[in-house]
Specification:
The chain has 432 residues and is an alpha/beta fold. The protein folds into two domains: 11-273, 3-Layer(aba) Sandwich (Rossmann fold); 277-431, Alpha-Beta Complex (2-enoyl-CoA Hydratase, Chain A, domain 1). The chain contains 19 helices and 20 strands. The strands form six sheets. The chain has a seven-stranded mixed sheet, with helices on both faces. A five-stranded parallel sheet has the order 18-17-14-13-19. A two-stranded antiparallel ribbon has the order 5-6. α8 packs antiparallel against α10 (221-230) and α8 (195-208) packs parallel to α17. The protein is globular. The protein starts with 10 loop residues before the first helix and ends with a strand.
Length: 432
């Protein structure tokens, strides 16, 4: 399944090039993290150069205000200008109020907390905001994807990254259904990228399947593609990659270096802290979706992280009283519904016009299964049921199960033997 963007260097060798504070044991004090950021940026040639700081949106847990204040303090007065770019991927843009809470300033008073810095959403819907970095040729994509896809891939990236001298990624590293472990160059692709490379990278991940790729520290074919795209970015690429303590805003570690080395360093810690092992499969799961996921498109992470431990014929219930929509940004998911990979692969002419990122999301949430093109029968390994404010008719239309939200007593379910996972979506569960 694995390949490398640079066959000379393994992830472990890349990790050795980064500087890391902390590990999987214990958590760091704020003063330690702040001092580490100041020390590392103090060694970077920043004076008179512009810096684009690429950060996650609100669907990732991270003590971002603390990190941003330390980064801003270390850069202010040295950098010629600073832009903070929110890596939305294709998520909903964040409002001024949400941005203020996310980054740690009073709404409407950015300059008072972060003088000289502007903050912008990645406007993935606006073609004029992209710069064309070139093309990954079909022959190279065939190599990177291990023969899964052969096509030219245009590489478009938010202009803000290209128009600054330094691109500094600041954000968490977590198990991820498409790339293996998130972070690093993933903040560029798909974080602030154009649709083509998003679609291709996600569909490669779907062809491999989420259950196989999620949580691996290796350079997966998707990571290899992302690194290839990042090699075309003209800015100097640096990153603070952090690993948080599950369920809190404390940090286990923070790694600094180029975007490949810092990611590899943090991925080692993430694999030790965010992958939990069970001794046997479970039949029924209630995955309690936190409010940072405001629709099923993002809240589906509560399924991705549980699929590997659910028995054949088992059920995952996504419990989310706050969710009222399948997707706020991608209504086309209702046109196709949720299906296994082979449902699309074996009817490709029927579905190839749909954004491949949408097809990939569909397969990730529906999980493993088979499809018989002759009979039209789809067999799915596990059941996915929504306990949300989404109407039953819409759930059924999307090929998902429905249960009345008010019929579920989470505490009683846990006492009765159901595997209940609070704050689902960031910790991956696997079998020993």
């Amino acid at each position: 399944m694995t390949t490398t963007a640079d066959p000379v260097e393994t992830p472990s060798e890349a990790a050795a090039r980064a500087v890391r504070l902390g590990d999987e044991h214990g958590v760091l004090a704020t003063e330690e993290v702040t001092a580490f950021i100041a020390e590392q940026l103090g060694k970077v040639d920043v004076d008179g150069r512009s810096v684009c700081i690429v950060v996650p949106d609100g669907t990732r847990t991270c003590p971002l205000p603390m990190l941003m204040k330390a980064v801003h303090t270390a850069l202010h007065g040295r950098a010629s200008r600073m832009t903070t770019l929110i890596a939305l991927g294709t998520h909903q843009p964040m409002s001024e109020e949400a941005l203020a809470a996310h980054l740690g300033y009073e709404a409407g008073a950015l300059e008072e907390t972060y003088p000289g810095m502007r903050v912008v959403n990645h406007e993935w819907w606006d073609e004029s905001t992209f710069a064309d970095l070139g093309t990954i040729p079909a022959s190279r994509l065939a190599e990177l994807s291990e023969g899964r896809l052969t096509m030219d891939v245009p590489v478009l990236l938010n202009r803000a990254v290209v128009e600054h001298d330094i691109a500094l990624v600041v954000g968490p590293v977590l198990p991820h259904e498409v790339v293996g472990i998130s972070g690093g160059n993933k903040y560029f692709f798909p974080g602030v990228a154009g649709q083509d490379i998003i679609d291709v990278s996600h569909w490669i991940g779907a062809l491999i399947t989420s259950a196989e790729i999620i949580g691996t520290t290796a350079i997966t074919p998707v990571r290899a593609l992302i690194n290839e795209g990042a090699s075309l970015v003209p800015a100097e690429k640096l990153a603070f990659c952090v690993v948080g303590e599950a369920g809190s805003l404390d940090l286990h570690s923070i790694s600094f270096g180029d975007t490949i080395a810092s990611w590899a360093s943090a991925a080692e810690v993430c694999a030790a802290t965010h992958v939990h092992y069970l001794d046997e499969q479970v039949q029924r799961v209630i995955s309690v979706i936190p409010e940072m996921y405001d629709d099923i498109w993002t809240g589906a992470k509560g399924f991705y992280k549980l699929e590997p431990v659910v028995a054949d014929g088992g059920e995952v219930i996504l419990y989310a009283p706050h969710i009222t929509e399948i997707s706020t940004s991608h209504p086309e998911i209702l046109e196709i519904g949720y299906h296994c990979r082979d449902y699309f692969v074996k009817q490709w002419d029927r579905f190839k016009h749909i954004h491949w990122g949408t097809l990939a999301h569909s397969t990730h949430l529906r999980g493993a299964g088979t499809y018989d093109a002759d009979t039209g029968e789809e067999r799915l390994r596990v059941r996915v049921t929504l306990a949300t404010r989404i109407p039953e008719e819409q759930c059924r239309r999307a090929n998902l199960g429905y249960v009345d939200l008010d019929s579920i007593d989470v505490a009683a379910e846990a006492e009765g033997g159901t595997f209940v996972v609070p704050n689902a979506g960031e910790v991956l569960f696997r079998l020993r």
